[in-house]
Amino acid sequence: MPRDTSRAFWASLIRASDRTVRFEISMSVVMAITAGITAALAPLLLKAFFDQIGSGTPFARALPLVAAYLVVVFAIRLLSQVQNYLFTTGEQRLQQRLSANTFQHLLALPMNFHLQKPLGAILRAHSMMLQGVRLMMVHTIHTLLPISAQLAAIVLVVASLFSSATWVCLAGIAIAYTSVFAVAARWQARATSRALVADTRAGTCLTDGLINIEPIKSAVAERSIGADYDRSLGEGFQHWREASIRRTITGAAIAVLYVTSAATLILIATSGSDNDAVSVGGLVLLFTYLAQIFAPLESAGYAFQDIAQVMRQFDDWRPIAGLQGEDMGSGGAFPSNRGAPGPPVITFEDVVLTYQNGTQALSRLSFSALSGQVTAIVGPSGAGKTSIVRALVRHHDVTSGAIRIDGVSISDIALHDLRSHVAIVSQDTVLLHASFRKNVTFPQTVCSPDRIDDVLRVLCLDKLVARLPQGLETTVGERGQQLSGGERQRVAIARALLRDAPILVLDEPTSALDSETEEAIRAALFNSPQRRTSILITHRLELAARADKIIVVSNGTVEQEGTHAQLLARGGAYAGLWRDHQVGAPVRTDKHEVV
Length: 595
Hints:
By secondary structure, the chain is an alpha/beta fold. The chain is built from 20 helices and 10 strands. It has helices at residues 3-16, 19-41, 43-54, 59-108, 111-116, 119-161, 164-211, 213-218, 222-270, 280-321, 385-392, 415-420, 436-441, 449-458, 462-467, 485-499, 515-525, 541-544, 564-570, 573-581, and strands at residues 346-354, 360-369, 374-378, 400-405, 408-409, 422-425, 503-507, 533-537, 549-554, 557-562.
């Protein structure tokens, strides 16, 4: 296996282990080695028994040797059960810690990673890594360590009791087995590797299909998506079948090797070259050891094949494990924590943002969102509006220029502090598969019931909650699919308002709402503006018209800015957008006061 892969693999296990895990696994290892050595020495009692019977000793006098052998076998089985308990509890505890650590690592990775890496590939790599850890530990502790100890003890016994020809024969058998499995492992690895690639494609297809189930069903694309998945499964089946054929051929070669080895050992034992050592008991011992060599070596060979496969599986996870997560703690405090009065002022200064694929989203963009005011950002699709949000919370660091909050560059503010002071309502609302209450209060764990009731009433969610079978405790389903698009969006707005953050960012917050509910939400968004600084991104100019200032963005830069009246009087881009979007209804530019 590649050295860096092996190092990364064991490093991940060490990081996930604690004192209890290390104790349980260490004791399991000690017991496995002890059981292997004892299993190798136990047949000596059978040899002594048959030698005594062969020399004329009465059966009754030799019987204690058989009893002793059975006691040792029982002790080995009992030791194995205790060892298995310690291993199982330690391995499960390690899996729990490892799963939690790796999930936390995935959450800590920057948005660039999550935007570029398919979710199915991430889940597949994570699942295969956890499965690989278990296989590695099972084979190492249950197979390789006890077999190694057992074979070492057998070599010592055979070398001390039999002639060189006998132990050279047994050594040759071991070498032949090892060689066959080494060749077979490389031969089978190629087919296995291709099968794993096909399985990854199938897993990605499955995840994408289930995540996007609603648009798939709406487009009547079930058969098409199902056919793509079936093709990927078919490719995987072909490669796995090839791997199985190669494994079967390996097994047949091992069967031939076993028969040949047994015949050779019989010839050596009965040829007269070892008359002093090979008694009846010696023959029993030799054939017992032959079985103890073949079966463990075969198990070890398959274990090495599985471990080689595990390392290839871990190769998919290793690049992810090596990525650096976001540093949430370094940097200063949010300006409001330093005693700055009132809601913050947000300033974009000649901001340039270029994504990793080379696309320039923002180009020398400059504007200010003043304290306690609502600043609306409008413009055509692809103008860079959403990129402004991503840059503000540092999902993407700006290429040049600066974003400042109360004069402090956001690069000098700890990420955790920055993001905890910015509440965002995005146009793509995704809810947790949890209760309505948890989705509304997320990420808070404690929130005043009166405050929840007030926000629900303002956003017209109180009537919805009253209709739910379990009220606030009703589960909203995967991604909130049991709610309508407008209801999901209102939940997202309620969540943002309950956070009571000094900065509120709304990215198309009313795109899925009816007019009556939209009016109530408008009232909530413009309520008590002195408590927060708001950035409103919207295509609905009748909503933007109520803002204190409107920023018109085009091609990643500011084209115009001013109030609704100023921009209409000035003409240009905003006036053109207004003409295109006006529906004939009168526009109200007053702010609503809602308690």
